Fold:
Amino acid sequence: MNVLVTGGAGYIGSHTVVELMNAGHEVIIADNLSNASADVIDRIEKITGKAPEFYRINCCSEILKSIFARHRIDAVIHFAGYKAVGESVRMPLQYYRNNIDSTLSLLEAMEYGGCKKLVFSSSATVYGPDNPHPYKEEMPALQSASPYGWTKVMIERILTDYVTAHPDFCAVLLRYFNPIGAHESGLLGDDPNGIPNNLMPYIGRVAAGKLEKLTIFGGDYATPDGTCQRDYLHVVDLAVGHLRALEYAMEHSGAEAINLGTGKGVSVLELVHAFEQANNMKLPFTIGARRDGDLPAFWADAEKAKKLLHWEAVHSLEDMCKSAWEFARTH
Ligand code: UFG
Structure:
């Protein structure tokens, strides 16, 4: 099958491209490299033995249409988008313009190319602050705490409306929890520009001695050890989830939201200690003030993914911590 992957050079995108290629699919990547490096394409080739087709482009309508004119695309996985929560609060217009426009352009290009299968990169952030955990797909998921999160809510809405108008279209809305870890080859991982916002890349830089110490944001939450709990899952499990979602989309129509998480909550302190134990080191940290916008605890109800996609996360927290360190150590 020919699969167009927008944002295929990014952290989750690149791992998904590897799984797609290993499963025998032809992959065409569209990525403007705004938050990724061209080296990733070479590394994907090293891992899979084959270079994916790569277009360095912005996801605007005319250019995407030209890709559909050149290739018979059977399905699309849409990762492309800005994703930094804090930045989105400072730059809302750029986030709405980029994330919404690129999705609308993609849908227009898919219509032009007669392609009716889409897997979209959504987020647990759409459950907003009011739902109890574990989050279930049938809960109201129509709000968020940041412009970034709102773009996910709005795009879910756009895709749902699109499916209403085109009942033979399938849109799988994958709501990710917290992906961490790296590819076993050590060639792909989470390597953000500048000082990381997310916990695991920050831990990696502290472990590598590039940052002095980790600040844990808040130690006084109403959780078992006072630090926030999240549902951390291995990025390779998440990538495999996309493959299953694609297989599902090929057989179905309609819009379907599906959580991809482990179903377990892990606290920041537990993750820090798991990292220390897995990699036999001490990690300097301090407990600081709460970070604005953080929810105390959430994790997935992972049953729907099991039932519809026959997918569940298989990697352990130890695998996540070891692979994350292997990548951080060598990059
Ligand atoms: N944390 C720290 N110190 C740090 C960084 C993070 O203590 O230096 C803590 C946070 O307070 C939070 C936990 O680590 O409790 C995880 O934080 P991340 O920034 O790694 O992840 P978030 O859960 O905040 O955000 C993730 C995704 C977003 C998504 C959000 C909600 O990065 O894209 O989940 O689904 F919107």
